[in-house]
Structure formats: structure tokens, C-alpha cells
Design goal:
InterPro entries: FBXL15_LRR, Leu-rich_rpt, Leu-rich_rpt_Cys-con_subtyp, LRR_dom_sf. This protein is an alpha/beta fold. The chain is 36% helix and 12% strand. It is built from 20 helices and 18 strands. Strand 10, helix 12 and strand 11 (278-280) form a beta-alpha-beta unit. The protein is globular. It starts with 6 loop residues before the first helix and ends with a helix.
Length: 502
């Protein structure tokens, strides 16, 4: 072991540029003193989730004067005064990226101290921060006018006022999630306040409606738009967005769980978004095969998520004519069958990712189709498909040698033999999920865990939400049978009572 304070260590660390000591429980202010004296050339420093205090904060500007990237995420032992130290000596004036996620002890004054010390910050990440307010952001923006990207996930008290404050900067990327105080008002002047914005992630922001999409339509540089879980968005808003120049540049569009969307707006999507690569309409339950016809005409698409929609085999047959799709997700689509997947695979020879999870109606036929037509497959999820057997997986293992990720959770018929086949045929497998696989032994799972990088395993019965029991029988059918039996028993009991009365 090489100790930080030794002469050898000082020689080796002199040219060190990246240092990650995150989650290190033994890191102290004293050890940071040795590190700072030995490694003056560090550009990237990750101190996240450590117990460093103001003493370490005092060391940063004194020794790491070239520091550009600093993560203090979940470091809760330093105070506002520690942030004031960043202005000492040469200061951290070259700092470009700063992560303060989870540092709930920082007040408005602390953010003011950061602004005085690190006015060159361009990328700011502050997640899991229930204490973050509009005033905190305003204090920072007063002097940090070079900020170009902000990530605020889990900051529920941020409101439209933050957007107004950030308009003083040349914002190119914003990411908010789980916020109820942000409304359409923040987007009303976005084309004037944020003319160069490229990425917008506003996930699970319930205050956003169709009005926001209309306001976004004039943006000329927008390439990524993620409004997943913004449940008040509908066809009218999407149509208004597509009327503007933003639609022609958009490359990634995520409208998952926007349940008011339907086929009506998808027609225009195919007309305007000719550069679109990634599309997610997950759980847009009103989307049908008619909408899929329009999606199939977006020839730039490489990835589409239609999970939880109302599509059937007809929609899959239409998508098969696209021929350029590399990723398809149709999880929880109860109208598709083996035939639809089979036809799609036959026309999708470049397919790399397929998710058909929680489609219990599917069988070995789809696995065999993948093995025949989609040999470049790298990721497959058949979780919640209880009809899949070892024989089909043997064929997949023999043909799909590039498989990296496999989820077979709830495939109750699979046995240890399947793991042996995977070990022989899929040597690039890195992630294997096999929860609720009751016929796979613990011994075989342990042996497989030494081969893959990440594994999840359990031999318990599938939970109720999988929709079938440990033998693969549908719980709905069982419930209906139980109900009929109950009704029959009631009728017999009534008849016997009447007979006795006579």
C-alpha cells in the first residue's frame, strides 16, 4: 500500500489530475491535508459523501488552484463559512462544475459566498435539496453569469422566480424533476430569455400544461425535450409545439405518462420531426395502431418506447417496415402476440434492444425469432413472461453472442440448464436479473454471479402484480373462476333453502 504522505506518493501524485475519494468513511481533514500538499495538479475532485469540514474547505483554494470540477454532494459537515474560504489565496476561480446535492446546511449566505469565490461556474447540480429556495439561486446568479446548465432534482421549493433569475445567464440545459410550483409562466418568455437552450428536462412537474409546449415552439436550438409525467399535456399542446421551428431540430422527445395524448397529434409529429432519433410515448394509453403508422414514417428514429399503449400486432407489423429501429419497448402491451413480435423481428435485423416485459401471453416463439433474425441483440427483457422455457433460451444463447443485459425475472419455467447455456454462448453478458425464478437453484445463481458484473436473484413466487401465480396461471382467470364458484354455491344454497321451505 502506498501512503499519501510518503515521498514516493508525492512523486507519483504530482501530475495527478483526477481524484475520487467519494464514499470514503476514513477520509478526514488531516488526510486531505496530505493529499492537497501532494497533488497540486488535480483538476477533478470528488469528495461526495465524506465527513470533511471547514478545514478541508480552507485547503482547496490554497493548493488546488487549477481545480475545475468539484463535487461536495452529501457532505454535511462544512458550513457557510467554509464556502467563504473558497476565496482565500489563489481562490477556486477556475471552477467550472460544482455539485452541492444534499448539502441542506447551506443557506442563502452560503450561496452568496460561492458567488463571490467561484464566479466562473458553468455547470451546477443541486439534487435532493428540500432547503433550496429561489433566493438561494438569485444570490448565486448575481455574480455567476456564466452558468449554462442547471440540474435541480428534488428541490420542491423552486418556483418560476428561479427561471426569471436564471435568464441573466446563457442557459443551454435545464433539468427539474418532481416540482409542483413550476407553472406555464416560466416558459412564457423562454424564447427571449433562453434563446440558446438545447436541453429541457421538466419531469413530473404537474403545473405544466399545453401552454408550456406552445411557448417552447419558437426555440431554434432545442434538441432534447423531456416532459415525462407532466400529466396535463395533451394533443393540443403537442400540435402547437410542432408548429414552430423547434420541431425540426428535436432529436429526443419523451412524453411518457402524458395520458391525454393520442393519435391526433402523432400525425403531425411524423410530418415535422424528421431529425427525431428517440421517442418515448410510454403509457400514453390512447395511442393505437393508427398512431404507430405515423411513427413508422419517421425514418430517423432509432429508438421508440410504446410500452403500456393500445397497440396490437397490426402496429408491430407496421413498425417492421421501418427497418432501422435499434431499440423497441412494448412492455405491458396486452394486445400483441407472438406473431406480431415475430413479424417485427423479421424486418428489424439491426435490433439491439427489446423490452417485452409483462406480456404474459408471449411464448418461446419470440425468443426463437430473435435468435434467427436479431443476432446483434445486446439487451433483452422478458420479465413477467411465464411461458419462456430453457429450449428457447438455449437457441438464443447459441445465436446472440453480443448480449450484455438480460432480465428473465418471473420466467418460472427456466432452470439451471439455461444458466449453463448462457455461460457458454453469451460471454459478454454483464447484467443478469432473475428474480422469482423458482426452478433456478441458489448454487447455480452463485456460480453465475462470479461471471457477470451485476446479478439479481430470488427463488420466491412472483408477486401478485405480475398477474400470475407460481405455476404461470393467470390470477384474473382464477379470480373469475372463484367468483363463478361462489355464485354457484350461493345459488345452490338458495335452492336448498327454498326446497326445505316447501
Amino acid at each position: 500500500m502506498l501512503h499519501v504522505g510518503s515521498r514516493n506518493a508525492q512523486g507519483l501524485c504530482k501530475n495527478l489530475q483526477e481524484l475520487n475519494v467519494s464514499d470514503c468513511p476514513t477520509l478526514t481533514d488531516e488526510s486531505m491535508r496530505y493529499i492537497s500538499e501532494s497533488c497540486p495538479g488535480v483538476l477533478y475532485l470528488n469528495l461526495s459523501n465524506t465527513v470533511i469540514t471547514n478545514r478541508t474547505m480552507r485547503l482547496l483554494p490554497r493548493y488546488f488552484y487549477n481545480l475545475q470540477n468539484l463535487s461536495l454532494a452529501y457532505c454535511r459537515k462544512f458550513t457557510d463559512k467554509g464556502l467563504q474560504y473558497l476565496n482565500l489565496g489563489n481562490g477556486c476561480h477556475k471552477l467550472i462544475y460544482l455539485d452541492l446535492s444534499g448539502c441542506t446546511q447551506i443557506s442563502v449566505q452560503g450561496f452568496r459566498n460561492i458567488a463571490n469565490s467561484c464566479s466562473g461556474i458553468m455547470h451546477l447540480t443541486i439534487n435532493d435539496m428540500p432547503t433550496l429556495t429561489d433566493n438561494c439561486v438569485k444570490a448565486l446568479v448575481e455574480k455567476c453569469r456564466r452558468i449554462s446548465s442547471v440540474v435541480f432534482i428534488g428541490a420542491p421549493h423552486i418556483s418560476d422566480s428561479t427561471f426569471k433569475a436564471l435568464s441573466a445567464c446563457d442557459i443551454k440545459k435545464i433539468r427539474f424533476e418532481g416540482n409542483k410550483r413550476i407553472t406555464d409562466a416560466c416558459f412564457k418568455l423562454i424564447d427571449k430569455s433562453y434563446p440558446n437552450i438545447r436541453h429541457i428536462y421538466m419531469v413530473d412537474c404537474k403545473g405544466i400544461t399545453d401552454g408550456s409546449l406552445k411557448s417552447l415552439s419558437p426555440l431554434k436550438h432545442l434538441t432534447v425535450l423531456n416532459l415525462a409525467n407532466c400529466v396535463r399535456i395533451g394533443d393540443m399542446g403537442l400540435k402547437q409545439f410542432l408548429d414552430g421551428p423547434a420541431s425540426t431540430k428535436i432529436r429526443e422527445l419523451n412524453l411518457s405518462n402524458c395520458t391525454h395524448l393520442g393519435d391526433a397529434s402523432i400525425a403531425k409529429l411524423s410530418e415535422r420531426c424528421y431529425n427525431l432519433n428517440y421517442l418515448s410515448l410510454r403509457n400514453c394509453e390512447h395511442l393505437t395502431d393508427l398512431g404507430v403508422e405515423f411513427i413508422a414514417n419517421i425514418f430517423s428514429l432509432v429508438s421508440v418506447d410504446l410500452s403500456g399503449t393500445d397497440i396490437s400486432n397490426e402496429g408491430l407489423m407496421t413498425l417492421s417496415r421501418h427497418r432501422k429501429l435499434k431499440e423497441l419497448s412494448v412492455s405491458e402491451c396486452d394486445k400483441i402476440t407472438d406473431f406480431g413480435i415475430q413479424v417485427f423481428c423479421k424486418g428489424s435485423l439491426t435490433l439491439e434492444h427489446l423490452d417485452v416485459s409483462y406480456c404474459p401471453q408471449l411464448s418461446d416463439i419470440i425468443i426463437k425469432a430473435l435468435a434467427i433474425y436479431c443476432i446483434n441483440l445486446t439487451s433483452l427483457s422478458v420479465a413477467g413472461c411465464p411461458k419462456i422455457t430453457d429450449s428457447a433460451m438455449e437457441m438464443l444463447s447459441a445465436k446472440c453472442h453480443y448480449l450484455h443485459v438480460l432480465d428473465i425475472s418471473g420466467c418460472i419455467l427456466l432452470t439451471d440448464q439455461m444458466l449453463e447455456n448462457l455461460e457458454m454462448g453469451c460471454r459478454q453478458l454483464r447484467i443478469l436479473k432473475m428474480q422469482y425464478c423458482r426452478l433456478i437453484s441458489k448454487e447455480a445463481a452463485i456460480r453465475m454471479s462470479s461471471i457477470v458484473h451485476h446479478q439479481e436473484y430470488s427463488a420466491s413466487d412472483p408477486p401478485l402484480w405480475f398477474g400470475y401465480d407460481s405455476e404461470g396461471k393467470s390470477l384474473t382467470e382464477q379470480q373469475n373462476t372463484s367468483l363463478k364458484d361462489s355464485e354457484l354455491t350461493t345459488k345452490e344454497s338458495t335452492y336448498n333453502s327454498e326446497e326445505e321451505a316447501v
